[in-house]
UniProtKB/TrEMBL annotation:
Location of the Tyrosine-protein kinase ephrin type A/B receptor-like domain: 485-533
Entry-linked InterPro entries: Growth_fac_rcpt_cys_sf, Tyr-kin_ephrin_A/B_rcpt-like
Protein name as catalogued: Tyrosine-protein kinase ephrin type A/B receptor-like domain-containing protein
Pfam families given in the database record: Ephrin_rec_like (PF07699)
């Protein structure tokens, strides 16, 4: 059964502990295995917010039941911890030192719902400092993350029906032309206990730097209070709870209440916008998280801060207020009067996932969900309070047409992998007209992964290394040329062979080795140059030009392997004394004719070694004569004394007379 036909059959939920009928059961799932033999599940790291749980658990189900891998789900904290997790940092949720770059195997491989541009400096630092393991971005999930101000759909509809105005656009909030407050509650109807005091030390409304920026970019000095003692500015809230924009500051009944949470999320932006765009607003900060999340339901005719995707206010079908297009120049200067930009919600994976499980990485790269898809999952879970497993399983069954397109063809291989016929239990070069299941496997050593274009599209096959090449590693995309001194005369080799004795190779990628010149050989295996060749033992190279002319050594010469006339004359070889030719003891040769050897009458007279060497001051050939006035004593030439000279002269005369 092909992967595509298998996917089509997955229709019935929760059979044998699985979500999908025919899904791989837990007992048959496998772990990832790295090059060191370490085995571990696919790690899915979940930053802790609702849309993140929805996306990551959905992916976990498909990885388990369709691709057959064990999965571990680890709860994270925020966006940054996700960056660290799939970058191989050992403690991604740690504050200060998450333990990046320690060389450990990455155990977290997937993070969905990653707001990549939310913390650009952290992302860029990881990419620059740990390029080999830093998280890889596989692109957008299909929607953007947005933080902005929202109005319930019901309020928008009432304004459109009553006056034909569209309160989702900022221009219909201009107090000089419209009165949007008639469609919202008055701040007087909102219990004071729901909002913090503006003077709360945790509120952005007491932050001097924030308030000073408000003056710089809006000129609204009247909207602030200056403490002369501390020289600090804070927001002016006449009733203690609400900051009023200039267009309704003199009459609070004309102000539209806006509620936010935390320390005052979005307050600075809305102070700029409401002032410069003449929007009548009253800005307040919820007293607690529960007050923030309950406020739009208790007071449905309101205006509130929110982010998407998120389930908190989905039942209200909130509509985002559209402000003037984002001006990057103004925003970077501190002027927040234009719209904020959406953040790409992306899919991050570890660098090694493409090697460990390329089909899983390919699957993640194909995932595309609409915001409507995500909202449907979020709202279902909120309404039912079921687990994320149960909720995403329902979505998988109801939206098969969506996620089925994410499942890659199992025969669509990636570099480093090749087509594998599971029926023949062997690699193959084609994927059509076969009844056996074709999958991708890492190319074994001795082969490399090569692109194949067929009628289906692009894939890769494993091809044996050609002659003259080798590849010791698996999952390779090319083979290595044999080095100098090596060769390979077979295909599909893991290693190259060393040139044998008497042969050499001075080029890369050789299929055979070159032979040394006639009568020459090499000292050992793997010779890389013809210069490694030399005359065989008992022969000597008498050519001094760099060529070869090997002649047999005559009696009285010792000629080891690679002997040369130059070395005989100098008495030294770059290979050492054991490879230096020499005249044997008891023999003699002249400097001018070093290979013409004479036997000496006395071993003591001829020590051998370099040509022209005699003992005890003897000269002539072959070490047979002392200089004039000296005589050979059996071990050296000595100067003759007077009586010896007279005796020698008389003896000479007598010999002549005779």
């Amino acid at each position: 059964m092909t992967m595509r036909s298998f996917v089509i059959s997955l229709l019935v939920p929760l059979v044998c502990g699985t979500c999908l009928d025919g899904g791989v059961p837990p007992s048959e799932r496998k772990n990832l295995e790295n090059e060191h033999g370490d085995s571990y599940p696919v790690g899915i790291f979940v930053p802790d917010w609702a849309a993140s749980w929805a996306a990551n658990v959905l992916v976990a189900t498909i990885v388990e039941e369709i691709f057959g891998y064990n999965v571990s789900i680890v709860k994270g904290t925020g966006t940054v911890s996700g960056y660290y997790a799939v970058s191989g940092c050992v403690d991604p949720t740690a504050v200060g030192d998450p333990g990046c770059g320690l060389g450990n195997a990455t155990k977290h491989h997937i993070v969905m719902e990653a707001w990549t541009n939310g913390y650009p400096l952290v992302w860029e630092t990881l990419q620059n400092e740990y390029p080999g393991v830093a998280a890889k971005n596989l692109g957008n999930m299909g929607y953007e993350g947005v933080t902005s101000t929202f109005v319930p759909k019901r309020v928008i509809g009432e304004a459109e029906q009553a006056e034909g105005i569209a309160l989702q656009y900022f221009k219909y909030w201009n107090a000089s032309w419209y009165q949007p407050s008639k469609y919202f509650e008055s701040i007087s109807a909102i219990p004071s206990g729901l909002t913090k005091l503006c003077s709360d030390s945790t509120s952005v409304m007491t932050d001097d730097a924030t308030m000073r920026r408000h003056i710089v970019f809006t000129g609204d000095v009247d909207g602030l209070v200056h403490d002369s003692t501390s020289d600090a500015y804070s927001a002016r809230c006449d009733d203690g709870h609400w900051w009023l924009s200039p267009s309704c500051r003199s009459n609070s009944t004309l102000c539209v209440p806006f509620i936010t949470g935390g320390v005052g999320w979005g307050i600075e932006e809305l102070m700029h916008k409401s002032t410069k765009l003449n929007m009548p607003m009253a800005l307040g900060v919820a007293a607690s998280w529960s007050a923030y999340t309950e406020f739009p339901f208790l007071h449905p005719k309101s205006h509130f801060y929110w982010w998407i995707p998120d389930p908190t206010f989905l039942e209200l079908e909130p509509v985002q207020v559209v402000y003037p297009p984002h001006d990057k120049r103004l925003f970077s200067s501190g002027d927040l009067s234009t719209a904020t930009v959406g953040v790409s919600v992306d899919k991050h994976v570890s660098r090694d996932l493409s090697i460990l499980a390329p089909n899983v990485e390919n699957f993640v790269s194909k995932i595309l969900m609409t915001l409507e898809d995500m909202n449907a999952i979020l709202l279902d879970q909120k309404n039912t309070t079921d687990s994320w497993r149960q909720t995403t399983c329902r979505w998988l069954h109801s939206n098969q047409h969506v996620w089925q397109s994410w499942i890659p063809d199992e025969s669509q291989c990636f570099p480093g992998f090749g087509l594998y016929d599971t029926g023949l239990d062997d690699f193959t070069n084609h994927r059509v007209n076969t009844s056996n299941k074709i999958v991708c496997q890492a190319c074994p050593s001795g082969t490399f992964s090569q692109l194949l274009e067929d009628s289906i599209g692009e894939t890769y096959i494993c091809v044996p290394c050609a002659k003259g090449k080798s590849q010791p590693l698996g999952a390779a995309t090319d083979c290595n040329l044999c080095k100098s001194g090596e060769y390979q005369d077979e295909i599909g080799s893991k290693t190259c062979k060393r040139c044998e004795i008497g042969l050499y190779q001075d080029e890369l990628g050789a299929e055979v080795c070159k032979s040394c010149p006639a009568s020459t050989t090499t000292l050992g295996l793997g010779s890389v140059s013809q210069k490694d060749c030399g005359c065989e033992e008992h022969n000597i190279n008498i050519d001094v030009s760099g060529s070869y002319n090997c002649v047999p050594c005559s009696e009285g010469l010792t000629c080891p392997l690679k002997s040369t006339l130059v070395d005989l004359q100098s008495g030294a070889s770059y290979l050492g004394q054991q490879y230096t030719p020499k005249v044997q003891e008891g023999y003699f040769s002249t400097v001018l004719a070093p290979t013409e050897v004479y036997r000496c009458s006395s071993v003591a007279a001829c020590p051998g070694g370099t040509p022209g060497t005699c003992n005890g001051g003897l000269t002539n050939t072959p070490c047979a004569q002392c200089r004039a006035g000296a005589t050979w004593t059996g071990s050296q030439c000595e100067e003759c004394e007077g009586w010896r000279q007279v005796l020698w002269a008389r003896t000479s005369e007598n010999l002549r007379a005779a």
